[in-house]
Design a protein that fits this description.
This protein is mainly alpha-helical and 171 residues long. The protein has helices at 15-20, 27-44, 61-83, 95-100, 109-129, 148-169, and strands at 138-141, 144-147.
Length: 171
């Protein structure tokens, strides 16, 4: 089981996400469960909700899903780099720029969900492939320390955060 990261292993910005992962939970099982819950929630919505914005400048559900996909790919790249001993500081990214350039609203929800499934499956395979010692490895991302263990928890909590936002503001 991947233990919860210490606050020194990540940028304080990510604490909200990490704290959404239940204490003592197996974070990889949490990610598997989240994936199914996310799909069920999105598929339960009428199509017109997929491109709904609750306020000007806010993302649609399709854009949120694309954001989850993009973020997971970026963080898995970071996890792989740190697992292999990368010492170069990895750059941050502007999530709003990524969303604006994603063209997510031009895509069918089924293709987004399929991509989400594939990316999550690859994420789980990556983390399961690591030796236990790899979870302790730390690198630098966006000028802050970041451990492989923290990345797993950030990804799980990040998805939970966005599903909570959908339930509170889009339904």
């Amino acid at each position: 089981m991947i233990t919860k990261p210490l606050p020194t292993e990540y940028n304080p910005y990510f604490e909200t996400y990490i704290n959404l992962v239940p204490t003592g939970a197996d974070v990889l099982e949490c990610m598997e469960d989240n994936m199914m819950d996310t799909e069920e929630l999105i598929l339960s919505l009428p199509k017109k909700k997929h491109e709904y914005r609750y306020a000007e400048g806010k993302w649609t559900i399709k854009e949120i899903l694309q954001h989850l996909i993009d973020t997971e790919r970026i963080f898995c790249y970071r996890a792989l780099c740190f697992a292999r001993g990368e010492q170069t500081s990895l750059p941050g990214y502007d999530e709003n720029d990524y969303a604006a350039n994603s063209f997510a609203n031009n895509r069918d929800i089924d293709t987004l969900l399929d991509e989400f499934d594939q990316v999550r499956s690859a994420t789980l395979s990556l983390f399961k492939s690591f030796d236990k010692s790899v979870y302790d490895k730390t690198g630098t991302s966006n000028n802050h320390p970041l451990s492989v263990r923290a990345i797993a928890h950030i990804l799980a909590g990040h998805e939970l955060h966005h599903m909570k936002v959908i339930q509170e503001r889009y339904l």
